[in-house]
Design a protein that fits this description.
The complex is a heterodimer. By secondary structure, chain A is α+β, with helices and mostly antiparallel strands. Helix content of chain A is about 20%, strand content about 40%. Chain A contains one helix and four strands. In chain B, a hairpin with a 5-residue loop joins strand 1 (about 5-15) and strand 2 (about 20-25). Classes of the chains: A alpha+beta, B alpha/beta.
């Protein structure tokens, strides 16, 4: 089924796409049919910069298990670093 | 027998006089032929949808797939265009109708066109096929598991589409509906509601729901592919177009 549901998020960082590095300003997460992965549904994550056009996008299509593992890994990595080290406001 | 075809990218004029990329596949023979506008699904102007156009050409029709996301820029890949459109909430209904009208006009201007036009769409394209058939003067429409014709999208969806049931009195042509019994969008009760509405209005339609099939059972590159349902569905599509798109 097509869920059509999209969770959008403001992001601040950089990503490497087909044309090289670009500044990431936004993202979208949706559970829906993938474009490329061989599953019926995947967790699709777009890292984007709409100001640079639609090609400024890094796309990831993960299984539910992989997406949850990624969430856990992000939290684990942040917990292992000094608080605020990677903050956009600068290190504490 | 001449079964050769031409297929490739053309430019058509869509809604608001926008120049749109489109994929055209047409037989090279000189027999009069109907035209089919193939409306791509939410994931965009992909290779599977363009393959559908070649399949129609192999069966004697001129078929065209307008890239509904052309306005995102010609330099962007179709999947990137689709992600950008998705983030914006999809394409407006009015724009879709104008783009399909432009695609139909392009087909009717081709040599050997018999002036008869069908539309077909899968998934969100199924809804769009119904929308086009209620908004334009067409000769046949095929809705393959189009959702949100009867029910509205989930409340937290960013998509701006609205149900189309109130447009059913304006349906301009016979409608073939192909659905999977295991689908949730549209679920069987939504299909039944549309069936009942069209019956009540006296609108010519033919619905088939396949057991053991869910959404996207025509999609050969996806695990949802159901060969038996897809084979029977294709046969029904060609029988339907054979009746309604012949000169």
């Amino acid at each position: 089924m097509c869920t059509y549901q999209t969770v959008k998020v403001e992001l601040d960082g950089a990503a490497k796409g087909a044309a090289g590095w670009f500044t990431v300003t936004g993202g979208a997460v949706y559970v829906d049919h993938p474009y490329h992965a061989c599953q019926e549904h995947t967790v699709n994550i777009d890292f984007t910069n709409p100001g640079d056009g639609p090609s400024a996008r890094v796309a990831v299509e993960l299984t539910e298990e992989a997406a949850l593992a990624l969430v856990g890994a992000i939290q684990q990595a942040l917990a292992a670093a000094p608080p605020g080290l990677a903050s956009g406001q600068g290190a504490a | 027998m001449n079964d050769a075809m031409w297929a490739g990218t053309v430019t058509i004029t869509g809604h608001g006089d926008a120049g749109l990329e489109a994929y055209l596949a047409r037989p090279l023979g000189d027999a009069p032929r109907g035209g089919v506008v193939v409306i791509h699904h939410l994931p965009g102007y992909d290779s599977g949808t363009r393959e559908f156009a070649r399949t129609f050409a192999a069966h004697g029709y001129a078929a065209i797939v307008p890239n509904l996301y052309s306005r995102e820029g010609a330099g962007a890949a179709p999947d990137d265009q689709a992600a950008a459109v998705r983030a914006k909430g999809g394409v407006p209904d009015e724009q879709l109708v104008g783009d399909v009208a432009g695609a139909a006009a392009h087909l009717n201007a081709l040599e050997h066109a018999n002036g008869r036009i069908g539309v077909i769409g899968h998934c969100s394209g199924g809804r769009h096929a119904f929308l086009a058939a209620c908004s334009l003067d067409l000769d046949a429409a095929v809705d393959c598991y189009g959702a949100f014709v009867v029910n509205a999208p989930p409340a937290d969806s960013p998509l701006k589409m609205t149900p189309l049931l109130s447009m059913a009195p304006d349906l301009s042509c016979p409608l073939l509906g192909l659905f999977g019994e295991d689908d949730k969008f549209p679920a069987p009760d939504e299909v039944a509601a549309l069936d009942a509405e069209l019956t009540g209005l006296g609108k010519e339609h033919e619905f088939h729901s396949y057991p053991g099939a869910g959404h996207a059972f025509f999609a050969v590159e996806r695990p949802s592919f159901r060969p038996a349902a897809a084979k029977d569905g294709w046969a029904k599509i060609f029988a339907f177009y054979g009746r309604h798109l012949s000169a």
